[in-house]
Specification:
This protein is an alpha+beta fold. It contains 3 helices and 32 strands. Among the domains are: 71 residues, no CATH class; 115 residues, Methylamine Dehydrogenase, Chain H (7 Propeller). The strands form 8 sheets. A 4-stranded antiparallel beta sheet has the order 1-32-31-30, with no helix packed on it.
Amino acid sequence: MKKDNPIIADRDDSNRKKRDLAEPHNPEKSLLSSKIAKSGLRQKRAGKNQHKGLIIIGLLILVFFGLLIVLIFKLPDSPELPEDDSLQPIESANVETVLEFSSHDANRYYPFGHLLIYLSQDQITMKNYAGKDIYQEQIDFARPVGVYNANYFVAGDRNSGQIIVLDNHSKKFSLHLDGCFAGAYFGGDDYLAIIEENPDQPGFVHIINMQTGEKMLMIQFFESGYPLAVSFSDNLDFFDVLLTNIKGSMIQPIIKRYDLNGNQIGQKLPDDHPFLYGKIDHDSNNNIVITCTSNILVLNFEQEKPIAGYTPGKVYEIAAGKKLTALASTHIEGSLQIVEWDPEKQVFNEKELEIGTSIDNFTYSADYITFNDGNKVKVFDRKSGILILDQVVPSDIVRIGINSNQIILITDQGVKILNL
């Protein structure tokens, strides 16, 4: 373009000289013609200079963008995130209503894998999502309560010793205690620990074989205190019983360890932490983790002092797994935080997440922790470490369950499923 413009200008100038020689000379017009010619020449020069300026600006812009493109190509590649859908928060999960019932019946339904359990004072029924009965039995429970994992559902009566255990197909077995049912704790799919209350005697712990329904062990605690919870080791070679006792005016937590033959193989008394601990778990290294409403304590039978402690304002819930995950807050009425216990580094890690200030219902699996705060359903992905769902459901939520990648909601209007 630069080489073309001067050639065109020279031709215009040559033509103009030829025209001047050919035209007759007029004295009257000479001054005006001279002024007009000078004015035209100035305009042509100004236009030519303006044209050149625009060309230069255009070339500078092209050079700038060219350098920018080269710079971009020379930049190092950004690290690519793994292609995992769970890493991206779900804006809105699809909600499907699979069964409708009255609000009066809502408290009687429990989510149980891909099934539902209806438990009332006079009936226990296993149903599918279409409402079809798979198993049904008439019962006489004054205060029915359900405890369940992925494969077994334990129905007990808080006012009697009646117990019914269901699997994913039908009734597995039933039991009868002399006292009252006070809790059930699973040892995988192999064992079941049941705490029995008895007003005339100290508390009992029964170990049940889940395959046969037979009582393997019965342990009575005469002087050690009252049993509150039981936890089995990862490889199921022993179990720990969490008890509480009154020592003078102080609460004394006690942990007793037994093998599967009923032999006591250890005892731990964390005297420097006189809290009413109500939950006991094991981490992946089989360290003991006990929890109360304001404190989490990690213990090892081989060490005199605790491995670690965590004391927030309030502990709301705790989910067991390879890394125990607690929902806690630094202040009693403060916002909830995700707190994970790392058994390898032996530290508590806090995750700052906007997950509300209260929990109404709570459950977890190996992949997810889910809970609701009012009508808000929230799902935390345990692998990616992020909150993947925070969604409002236009129903009052009574219970929550997890079935693979589905969140099962028992509401006052019926059963709803959220597909993740």
